[in-house]
Every structure is written in structure tokens, then in C-alpha cells.
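Table S2 (text version). Query chain:
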Amino acid sequence: MIRPTHTYVVVKPEKVKETTEGGIHLPNAVKDRWDKMAAYGEVMAVGPDAWNLSYESHKRGQPTPQANVGDRVMFKQGAGVSVNYGELFLMHDEDILGVDNE
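Corresponding C-alpha cell output:
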């Protein structure tokens, strides 16, 4: 496992589904369009300065992590660097758009 430094976060991306829950096979055109949208993944590791350098953190005086290890997050497509043949992405904390609370 890679240990991120500074403001980096390691995320394991979810695979694009090939069929719907109802069993309908999705054509490549649909999967290609999904590739242009935001992606989801699981946070595997968080660097020591992640979310500490933002303006809001300094304004409050105490930084709080926006995502923790194990959280399902949404991130920008094309964000970060692919590691281990696409099994993991190493990206800046800013590239994470949100946390899925479900």
C-alpha cells in the first residue's frame, strides 16, 4: 500500500457496471459517457496534510478531515495518478468532491 504524503489521498476506484440491477447489458456508448462524469471510490489512505491547508481550516483554527479511510467518495474524472495498473489513484484532497453518507 502506498502511504500518501502532504495533501494527497489514495482512493480505490469503483468499476463501471456493465449491467444494471435489472440485468440489462449497457452498451459501450453509455459506459463511455459515464467515464466523463464524476467517479466513486473508497478512501484507502490519507496524507498528513490533507485538508489542513485550506482557508476554512485556518479560519476555524482546527482542521477537520473531510474524508476518512473507508469512506466512499466522489472525485473528479481524470484526477490524480493511476497506481498499480489503475487499481488505485493518488490524488490531491481538492479533487474529492463529496462523501457518500449512505
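Notes on Table S2: The chain has two helices and six strands. Strands lie at 8-13, 39-46, 72-75, 81-83, 88-92, 96-100.
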